[in-house]
Amino acid sequence: MSQTTASKHPKGLWVLFLTEMWERFGYYLMLGIFSLYMIDSVENGGMGFSGVKKSDIYGTYIGLVYLTPFIGGLLADRLLGYRRSIFLGGSLMALGYLGLALPGESIFYVSLLFIIVGNGFFKPNISTLVGNLYNDARYKDNKDAGYNIFYMGINVGAFVCNFVAAYMRLNYGWGWAFAAAGVGMIIGLIIFASGTKHVKEADVLKPVKPGDLSTGKILASVLLPMVAFGVIGYFLKGVTGPENLHGNIFKSDTNDAFIFGCIPVIVFFIYMLIKSDKEDKGPIAALLSVYACIVIFWAVFHQNGDALTVWAEEYTDREMPSAIAGPANELGMAQSINYNASVDMSEEQFTHYIDSLKTKKETFTEGSEESKALSAIIGDAETSRKYFENLSVEKQPEKGSELLLVSAELYQSINPFWVIVLTPIIVGIFGFLRRRGKEPTTPTKIAIGLFITALSALVMVAAVKSVNIEDEKASSLWLIASYGVITIGELCLSPMGLSLVSKLSPPRLTALMMGGFFLSTSVGNKLAGILSSNFETTDNKGGFFFMNFILVMIAAALLFALLKWLNRVMREKGVS
Questions:
Q1: How deeply is 311 buried, as exposed, middle or buried, from its count of CB atoms within 10 A (0-12, 13-18, 19+)?
Q2: What is the pLDDT of residue 437?
Q3: Which DSSP string corresponds to 420-472?
Q4: What fold characterizes domain 3-201+277-315+409-573?
Q5: In this structure, are residues 302 and 62 in contact, taking their beta carbons and an 8 Å threshold?
Q6: Is 478 helix (H, G, I), strand (E, B) or coil?
Q7: What one-character DSSP code corresponds to residue 219?
Q8: CATH 1.20.1250.20: which residues of the chain?
Q9: Which of 167, 239, 358, 516 sits in a 20 to 30 Å window from 11, CA-based?
Q10: Residue 478, CA distances (Å) to 33, 516, 548, 569 in order
Q11: Which phi and psi angles does 336 have, rounded to 5°?
């Protein structure tokens, strides 16, 4: 980092960069293996959930993990302060990751709850601190670039973590991989504690204006109804459609609960807009409009942890080239898979075979050598069948042969790899345009990002069309290309969204409006899980990805239509 670059940004940025890098190391390590862990067999140490249940839990988790920042942002603005909230949130997240290392379905759900609540205190407040650092006149013009740099820190952690996850999972098991996520979060907290003096000046509680709702009233009128509506939605059957209706991807008790639970929060933001004074009304309305549009971005983007992970696991040719297979295997980074006779069995025969092995296993003491050996046989048979079942006979290897594969979670590192590579280029392009007075406004960048995201879905349509996926696997290059395109869209949208919130929010509501940004992420994330459920059940994979393209194009068209008004609001606010 050059002295010139450093002088353009406050020292606190680099503290937050490293803190967020390690926090995201833990978060994305967990997320990268989350779906794979849930659908892996119990014999392999997984949860043994069905594909549809896996997508339901995945969508609910990533929905809730970005819903809680609304409350965390409010409490930080009014009561706790940002640094204290970050320590609280990070500690809860570390406990959650370490809890996932323990076996059992009950501890599984409790651990997810810790992570969901912890992220609510951590995520909006570290993002708000970044913006507050740029309130200093020396750095004000570099806020967009600052958020791009901060965002690169997120993706450095996200890139590295999947290699750690693959190594720990393949060599020691799922539990050790989740424990590594907890260790990463603890390292992040240590870094934040050691550099907290550099962000102290940005940690300022915001005064409440006359007429604003008190913190207690907001919690009573939003948090309690959110929980109550969620419970009602869960037990009120059939809201999102008739039960057991094949093809109704929206029908789920958790979908009902999530949709109902969001209603009080959405109503609160509408109420806040209506009650705001003339000075605040335009900026709040602009932010809420952008939030509504980028919901679809997250609905497509966060399929990377579910639908695209399943695509990598089941439809992508993951066989390692011979030049790297040997060294990767020596380092414990290759997934070994054997082609065995169970692949050629009918579904009925395979089920009977696995059931007979499980019955035999029950005759031995849990944890005995015999029990472990049978678990390994069952796990190998299920893993082999999953990989080879959509390969035609002529494309299958010889029986008994061993293949060395790229572990599916490593594909989760493609996106952060592109972020690291492309961030300096994107920042450089916008800097070049800024020096010539031609830099697009922040809302324009977001609209461009949506359009580019739509194009990434077309790449996956082409991936489906490139082979007959019933008897052949697609090249890894399609995923690499799709992630490359969506990363350009992401860099134009996600860090710019954070920057926009920091620029337009009334100062006393910055963290609360940051929570609103994450609420839009939350809704989009839940939609990602709902859409991914459809990926599990549909035979038309190309149609699935084309649906993603249409959805994002509609959102992009809407935002482009709003640009003139949004840019006027930005000018009136004195920002660009």
A1: buried
A2: 86
A3: HHHHHHHHHHHHHHHHTT-PPPHHHHHHHHHHHHHHHHHHHHHHHHHS-TTT-
A4: Growth Hormone; Chain: A; (1.20.1250)
A5: yes
A6: helix
A7: I
A8: 3-201+277-315+409-573
A9: 516
A10: 21, 34, 16, 40
A11: -90, 135
**Cα 368 from chain centroid?**
38
pLDDT score for 50: 83
Burial class for 401, CB neighbours closer than 10 Å (0-12, 13-18, 19+) = exposed
Mean pLDDT by 10 residues, the chain (576 residues): 58 88 91 88 84 82 82 80 92 96 92 94 85 77 78 82 89 92 95 90 71 69 74 61 42 68 80 82 88 89 85 88 83 78 79 86 81 80 79 68 82 87 87 87 91 95 90 91 94 81 77 76 82 82 93 94 90 78
Which phi and psi angles does 341 have, rounded to 5°?
-65, -25
Helix (H) or strand (E) holding 335: strand 334-338
Tokens 């260790």 found at: 183
pLDDT for the residue 508: 67
**139 and 9 Cβ atoms separated by less than 8 Å:** yes
Tokens 């922040």: give the residue: 442
Is residue 480 within 8 A of residue 561, CB to CB? The reply is no
Instruction: Residue count of the chain, please give it.
Output: 576
Q: Which two tokens stand for residue 501?
A: 């919130």
How far apart are the C-alpha atoms of 231 and 112, rounded to whole Å? 18
Q: Alpha-carbon distance 383 to 46, whole Å?
A: 12
d(CA 488, CA 148): 12
Q: How far is it, in rounded angstroms, from Cα 175 to Cα 192? A: 26
pLDDT reported for residue 553: 95
Q: Coil, strand, or helix at residue 402?
A: strand
The per-residue pLDDT for 250 is 43
CA 536 to CA 257: how far, in whole Å?
22
Tell me, what amino acid is at 427?
V
Give which of 38, 141, 122, 23 is closest to 80, Cα–Cα: 122
Are the CB atoms for 143 and 131 separated by under 8 Å? yes
DSSP 505: S
Q: Record the tokens describing residue 339, joined without a space.
A: 């082609």
Nearest to 357 by CA among 43, 48, 46, 104: 43
* DSSP state at residue 104: S
The whole-angstrom separation of Cα 485 and Cα 356 is: 47
Q: How many CB atoms lie within 10 A of CB 228?
A: 13
Rounded CA separation 396/62 (Å): 37
**SS3 state of residue 237:** coil
Radius of gyration of the chain (CA): 24
Q: What is the pLDDT of residue 241?
A: 43
**What is the structure's pLDDT at 249?**
44
In 3D space, the residue among 218, 276, 299 whose CA is nearest the CA of residue 504 turns out to be 276
pLDDT of residue 246: 38
CB of 385 closer than 8 Å to CB of 353:
no
Cα dihedral sign, 420-424-429-434:
positive
The Cα 185–Cα 97 span in angstroms is 9
Task: Please tell me the predicted confidence (pLDDT) of residue 242.
Answer: 41
